[in-house]
Automatic annotation (TrEMBL):
<dbReference type="InterPro" id="IPR036570">
    <property type="entry name" value="HORMA_dom_sf"/>
</dbReference>
<dbReference type="GO" id="GO:0051301">
    <property type="term" value="P:cell division"/>
</dbReference>
<keyword id="KW-0131">Cell cycle</keyword>
<feature type="domain" description="HORMA">
    <location>
        <begin position="15"/>
        <end position="205"/>
    </location>
</feature>
<dbReference type="GO" id="GO:0005737">
    <property type="term" value="C:cytoplasm"/>
</dbReference>
<keyword id="KW-0132">Cell division</keyword>
<dbReference type="InterPro" id="IPR003511">
    <property type="entry name" value="HORMA_dom"/>
</dbReference>
<dbReference type="Pfam" id="PF02301">
    <property type="entry name" value="HORMA"/>
</dbReference>
<keyword id="KW-0498">Mitosis</keyword>
<dbReference type="InterPro" id="IPR045091">
    <property type="entry name" value="Mad2-like"/>
</dbReference>
<protein>
    <submittedName>
        <fullName>Mitotic checkpoint protein with homology with MAD2</fullName>
    </submittedName>
</protein>
<comment type="similarity">
    <text>Belongs to the MAD2 family.</text>
</comment>
<dbReference type="GO" id="GO:0005654">
    <property type="term" value="C:nucleoplasm"/>
</dbReference>
<dbReference type="GO" id="GO:0007094">
    <property type="term" value="P:mitotic spindle assembly checkpoint signaling"/>
</dbReference>
<dbReference type="GO" id="GO:0000776">
    <property type="term" value="C:kinetochore"/>
</dbReference>
<keyword id="KW-0539">Nucleus</keyword>
Length: 215
């Protein structure tokens, strides 16, 4: 019945949307690090997130780093200051940027007369949890399948996280201005997007093509 369909809708608050986006970032970063072999496979565990079984790190140092980033990103998302998050994969020896995973953030509802309170509790959108999870699952599956189209990394690699924010955001000493780490003559693949009805996340990966490697 129509009443049942209506009951399945989830009232999305700003805070709820931020939690979903922040957790997606954590899951996506972990998936990239695992699939691209940045950390050893044995340092990951299986975990259920967004209706999927995913792999997340057990490395204590990495967990502390990701937790710190996630805390700041959550605060900036609540304030509407985050424009995009970028995962940069670089060669340890060459220091060259080999892959650049970009997640653009758009605030879908930005009515000055409908601003959330400081706790992020004001209702600003609605969408079923299943709809959101299905869209997130599609992106994570694309990250998992990336090994089928991305070139094999030819050297040990490390990663960095870039968070693009509004210029007036004040960050503590843990953050520093960074080069955007663009890849010259890169190939690009646009990935799926997802929306909470409050935030929209559009994703893509740029990479150095195999024939550009120095052999």
């Amino acid at each position: 019945m129509t009443s049942t369909a209506t009951a399945n809708k989830t009232e999305i608050t700003l805070k709820g949307s931020v939690e979903i986006v922040s957790d997606f970032f954590f899951t996506a970063i972990n998936s990239i690090l695992y699939q691209r072999g940045i950390y050893m496979p044995e340092t990951f565990k299986r975990e259920s997130k967004h209706g999927l079984t995913v792999l997340t790190t057990t490395d204590e140092g990495l967990l502390r780093y990701l937790s710190t980033v996630q805390t700041h990103v959550t605060q900036w998302l609540l304030a509407g200051h985050v424009q995009r998050l970028v995962v940069v994969v670089q060669g340890v020896d060459s220091l060259e940027t080999l892959e650049r995973w970009q997640f653009n953030v758009t605030v879908e509802q930005d009515n000055e007369n409908d601003q959330p309170n400081k706790g992020g509790g004001k209702k600003v959108g609605n969408k079923t949890a299943k709809e959101i999870h299905n869209e997130i699952q599609a992106i994570i599956r694309q990250v998992t399948a990336s090994v089928t189209f991305l070139p094999l990394l030819q050297e040990p690699c490390t990663f960095d996280l870039l968070v693009y924010t509004d210029k007036d955001v004040e960050a503590d000493e843990q953050w520093a201005d960074s080069d955007p780490c663009y890849i010259l003559n890169s190939a690009e693949v646009k990935l799926r997007s997802f929306s909470t009805s409050v935030h929209k996340i559009e994703s893509m990966v740029a990479y150095k093509e195999a024939d550009e490697w120095e052999l």
